[in-house]
Amino acid sequence: xxxxxxxxxxxxxxxxxxxxxxxxxxxxxxxxxxxxxxxxxxxxxxxxxxxxxxxxxxxxxxxxxxxxxxxxxxxxxxxxxxxxxxxxxxxxxxxxxxxxxxxxxxxxxxxxxxxxxxxxxxxxxxxxxxxxxxxxxxxxxxxxxxxxxxxxxxxxxxxxxxxxxxxxxxxxxxxxxxxxxxxxxxxxxxxxxxxxxxxxxxxxxxxxxxxxxxxxxxxxxxxxxxxxxxxxxxxxxxxxxxxxxxxxxxxxxxxxxxxxxxxxxxxxxxxxxxxxxxxxxxxxxxxxxxxxxxxxxxxxxxxxxxxxxxxxxxxxxxxxxxxxxxxxxxxxxxxxxxxxxxxxxxxxxxxxxxxxxxxxxxxxxxxxxxxxxxxxxxxxxxxxxxxxxxxxxxxxxxxxxxxxxxxxxxxxxxxxxxxxxxxxxxxxxxxxxxxxxxxxxxxxxxxxxxxxxxxxxxxxxxxxxxxxxxxxxxxxxxxxxxxxxxxxxxxxxxxxxxxxxxxxxxxxxxxxxxxxxxxxxxxx
Length: 524
What we know:
- The protein is α+β, with helices and mostly antiparallel strands.
- The protein has four domains: 2-132, PAS domain (Beta-Lactamase), CATH 3.30.450; 151-255, PAS domain (Beta-Lactamase, 2-Layer Sandwich); 259-346, Helix Hairpins, CATH 1.10.287; 347-524, Histidine kinase-like ATPase, C-terminal domain (Heat Shock Protein 90), CATH 3.30.565.10.
- 42% of the residues lie in helices and 25% in strands.
- The protein has helices at 2-9, 13-22, 42-48, 62-65, 69-85, 128-149, 173-177, 181-184, 201-214, 257-310, 317-342, 354-371, 391-412, 473-483; strands spanning 27-31, 37-40, 89-97, 100-112, 118-126, 154-159, 166-169, 218-225, 231-243, 246-255, 350-353, 375-379, 386-389, 421-431, 434-443, 487-493, 497-505.
- A five-stranded antiparallel sheet has the order 2-1-5-4-3, sandwiched between helices. Strands 7-6-10-9-8 form a five-stranded antiparallel sheet, sandwiched between helices.
- β4 (100-112) and β5 form a beta hairpin.
- The longest helix has 54 residues, at 257-310.
- It is rod-shaped.
- The model is unreliable at 465-471 and 510-524 (pLDDT under 50).
């Protein structure tokens, strides 16, 4: 160390000082206590436009070298502050030079001499280019933010992890999800994956991972759970990007709920039209078949009556003729029902007893229910309960409800079971001083989830396979009930029971509302 000190002492220290100062990236100077410059480096000389001759600057003050009152005042004020406080300062300043703003970062400090005097040293960097670049970057970011905020959706960058951790997410996500963007950043309050519909998470992840593996863009449509609990559909377009060896996903998300609902409604309407066309064709076929069968059945009934009259009173054959007539009359009732379905516009309202209505409907479906091993209970009061109606419409209503109950029972009990029972109850009651009739179809199938109960009467709503069901059965039933001045009310306890109540004004009120009698024996 001593040898190094001797070596330095033997050198021209001034040469070392000048070499060091002239190679600084900034402008350096030293000013004495008389406010005169005793040193400036090469960078400052260039800034001042000097040729490098010491006589050009030595012993001169700020006003002699710097142009512009603003610049001179800034230099003098900062020099005076250091001289007064004896403390270094660091300050950034913007100064107009020849009408153009220039930015400087000044570091000024006191230099204490052995004789007690204090000079001021300074190193100044011009940072105009840096500030210009920063301003340009800020303007670029502002434009980008304006563009992003005016897009009809949210722009994002996230990690391809389990949570799809958001690193950037535009505020448009608030309108889409109901949550502010800040909630998702670094999973602060929730992850983006947490709002994706549970049934869609696996497919979304699979499609994204496939795109990442192929380094290709991906396009997705999936459901999210909005903050209000509703299900929304979103469309997402993105691609994998690698930055600094890290894999990210970047893309765009927009709400397409209205489009999806419109597409689904269009699809359901098409299904409805096809269903109506199918029903129309079935009606025409049923009408044709009924007409073809009606005349022979009438003949069979007549021949059975003739045979019965011709047979002796004690003949065993009379039992066969009565059975022939009974079964033929049952077929005739079925034919009349089919004809009513085939030409519903020709029928008018009439008083119909509930018992005949139920019997006619079960005449159509009894064999089907027997084949499904479904037992049937009916509870109809002994006094006649009648409604003023279009019979074929109420029959259609009951058929729809029985079809739903049958499917529910078959779903829960694919084979026979003691609980595989379909019950139909009827009772009278009063509402607003008027007599009404309540017809209830009961089954012990899987039931209806509480969340679905408010929607089951809506058009096209169904929890069944949409390729087989248009979701119109209960809607049609509700429409028929409303057309007759009534309504449908549904009760259900999932896993236990479903009760569908059809409430209609009574045609001829009974003497007093009655409770249902004991149930008939179940019929297989």
